[in-house]
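A quick aside before the break. I want you to see a complete sequence-to-structure record at least once, exactly as it would be stored in a machine-readable document. Don't worry about memorizing anything.
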Amino acid sequence: MSLPGGLRRIRHRLQRALRGKRAWVWSGGLLLGLALFPHLAPAYHVSLGLALLADVALASAWALFSGPTGYLSMAAAAFYGAGAYATAVLGARLVWPLPILAGAAVGGLLALPVGLLALRLRGPYFAVLTFGLSELVRHLVVWYESRVTGTIGRILLAQPDRRTLYYGLLAIAVLTVAAALLLRRSRWGLALVAIGGDEERAEVLGVRPTWIKIGVFVLSALLMGATGAAIAPRWAYLDSQIAFNPLISFQAIIMALLGGTGRVAGPVVGALFLGLVSELFLVQFRYIYLMVLGAVLILTVLGLPHGITGWHLEERTGDLFRRVRWAIARRIPRRFAMQRDYQLFIDGEWQDAPGGRTFPDVNPATGEVFARIAAADVETARRAVEVAGRAKTEWGGLPPAARAGVILKAAEIWERRQGDLAQSMITETGAVAGKAGFEAGYCLELIRQAASLPYQVSGEVAPSNVSGKVNFFMRKPVGVVSVISPWNFPFILTLRAVAPALALGNAVVLKPSEETPIVGGLLVAEVFEEAGLPPGVLNVVTCPRAEVEAVGDVMVAHPAVGVVSFTGSTATGQKLAEKAGRHLKRIVLELGGKSPLIVLQDADLDLAVSAAAFGAFFHQGQICMAVTRILVEAPLADSLASQLVEKVRGLKMGDPRDPHTAIGPITSPAQLAKIQAHVEDAVAKGAKLLVGGRSHAQYFEPTVLTAVTPAMRCYHEETFGPVVALIPVKDAEEAIRLANDTTYGLSAGIITGDPDRGMALAERIQAGMVHVNDSPVHDEPHAPFGGIKGSGLGRHGGKAAIEVFTEQRWVSLQTERRHYPFDR
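That is the input. The structure line, written in tokens, reads:
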């Protein structure tokens, strides 16, 4: 959506104002502020008790030196803080206008006793009592949010986007007028308005305020809460501040201005800047401060989605600032963050696991437990399959237009939530921003393609050798589909099975990976629930690693299940295939790979280097199609090696939310240990490291090995990490032989200046997919995706989905009396 001309001009002026030396002054001042005022950092509030004591002490000191006017100012602060805070915590997950307004109402009601008390009390202990009550109100709101709004959130859950923000601001404007009318005609309303921070009005209680003062009072109070509600969901680091800082909305505005909606710098420098400003100016210039920041919020979200620092601050302060900022960010007390609890989705309802059991969901980039996930057991999985078995008939009997309509509605919702879905992926999987954005966007294409499948199911009318008989060969839904999806591309590898299966009239039971239960399953359920999918047609069962095998057994062996779709390791796929065979179940498997990239002597070297780097290191090599072996003809080997090493050294490793980051964290500690073991084994057996080879916390450097031999684990086994072996070959024949020297057969790539030769060689590679003059890492929604040998059975994608998720039936019609041998 393009910006109005006025907003564009404002944005450009802000950018110009921070160019050159001013950016250095800005960043230097912020760093100096950190050194001089460390207590202003978010880590200052280390516990509820310390926060309460600090606020009470500050209030007491202010009251002793300010007299009655100071008491009234403290009461006004309690009203503002509680009202804004309630709105922020309620709106942090519920960002439609209704929850925002509901949050404001709750905060106002909770703060009302504090305001009324301010009209009665005069004395030295007034400030202590008032702020003690305000802290109690804030902590009550925290409890209320953690205990109650989870249920509301499952009904009204939505992530903020521009359209929502527009509606929210419109609703705030309407409420402002309504509240102003109410306050102007209400005795208690006038009293509350009169105790604001304006010293002149505070001296004359009961005097009718002007319309302007009423409007400013109400609008500023609402902006405080609404800004927190609109911005909070965009910030993982902001969550830890919700529980401790009544100025959350100010933080949100400053963070958005400085850091945009996806950077670490914002929360850190924003908190410092906020602390300085609020300490110096908040009490004396409350209304001006609020109105200016309210305007800044609107301009920031609409006109500066990446923040000022997105253009200039980080670029001009270089790596030093990024390192300092990251060091600070790692010390923010995330252990105090409010975690969200996620439930199972069965029969159209969000349900707790038996006994309320949960398991942790960890952000791989930080090691932070950011959510608790319902832990299903065997009986829960069995119930989910039975629910799907009951729902399949009605859903499968709907006409194609009805099913396609629900799938298209899901695509519309997915498009609206696409940005926030990508952010969720970054948090849960450690995917870099580019990968998360690509995957969320690709899934939109995938869902839309699935919506076309109901119209692509066709049958045949065939002749018969029996007189008067007509044969019909038709396809029907299989009934219940079990989908077991992996963690590396959780959106794509879940939806490529779920969306076609639903579109073709089946009910689905989905078990996402225990590493990615939210993006691999629960968010998918949210989208389809909002799209109007009938209850029971999609069921999501999440479980910890200890329950995976038992739950998987149910999803394969249950009599109601018709097809099993599994994506994961070859070892697990073999076990599932054995179980499916025992129960005579159809199964489609997309398993591991050991993809080669063949680079012939006539290849475009730049293309070869780019294809190799992308294929080997995209998503840290955690892709079944990832390039693990570069088979390059010897005359080109040295040149390719030097350019590849240079390119790899330029890949930035770090915060996955930074759009410039190319290498993010490894998803799990177990996977990191496996990668490290493969590299150490290769080096110990004579391989040479051209670049990389080291781990840093949960990160592993992109690594290029040479002198790799069949005796090394990384030659035969799937590493599933950012490690590639560069192997010189004497000619194309040797390249083909080595390419096929593996138990896998998923994907391959050939880089050559002769397309005809490339196509001829592609015929000889033992793989389900071969891409000439492209990386092996490639997929399209309508293409038949899958491998041979140890890489799987069957295909996903396009018309192949019809083969997988429907079964062919033969129905015949005898149009005239048939004579049987037993007839006389």
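Two observations worth writing down. The chain has a mean pLDDT of 72. The first strand starts at residue 340 and ends at 342. We'll return to this after the break.
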